[in-house]
Specification:
By secondary structure, this protein is α+β, with helices and mostly antiparallel strands. The chain is built from 9 helices and 7 strands; from the N terminus they run E-E-E-E-H-H-H-E-H-E-H-E-H-H-H-H. Strand 1 and strand 2 form a beta hairpin.
Amino acid sequence: MCEAETGFVLQELPIKYCRTRYNRGPLPAIEFDLKWFDDTFTDPVYRLRILKMFPKEFEKGYRLWKEGKLIQDPGDYSGRAWYLLDQGSVCKFDFGLENGDMPLFAAAIPELCDLDAAQDLDRRKQMQKLLKILVQKLPRDKNGDLIFDVDEARDIHNNAVQMLKNAIGVDVLTTFADIQSIDVSDDNTSASTDDLERVERSVYNAFGVPNSIFNSEGNIALSNSILNDEAYIRTMVLQFGTFWDRLVRTRTKRRGGKKYNFRLFMLETTQYNYQQLSKLYKEQTQIGFSKCLPQIALGHS
């Protein structure tokens, strides 16, 4: 976070060269691998110019690393130059997942691959249902001998092919043998199941959301799922609120604000609960709470 003339600017750091292992209060302690400058910029002169574009602490840490004075974690054998950044000038937003910084819904990638394969298979099945095979079985005499010879059978087959050459999805089979169709599908189940629908359902299960969230059928479980999603995103909202509150208080203190103290809060309103929260805020005004909250919850200034 860099301070500019009109405010603050967020400067994104390369994720592969950042890590956070613990918090100090509600804020994460972020370490940066100073080897990023050497790995990315090979020209020493240009590298120094890039260093000056970053906050002063990066140049200070880079100098300590090159002089061999950078304090390293004794238990860290990664061989990287981790430098602890000033906690007041950095920020990190995540969902607070137990598996660290793994991308959201990454566990559903294998299920998406299965869905892609299932959709391709379903498409082939649908195409196969449109195909028709015209079977003409040549007769035999009572002794089982062929009535037509091979040349005559070929002519009969070619005549049928010529007649149906403009038909779409129709093939001709001419044979002397008996034809039998064998279905390998499971006949034990009385109700037919949609295989593609089952694969799609497994994808939503991997995401952790019901498929009715996009195609609602009035299920009560959908309402509970929305509440779970709101609780899931609440961690991110609290982090945004903490970040902006810290920014506001820092800004007002630097301007010599002694008479007024400013705090910033983010209301936990969504498209689904803003009406309910507005009514709740209205009821709380009777016992002395802010009269602005009902209007803010409704989106009014």
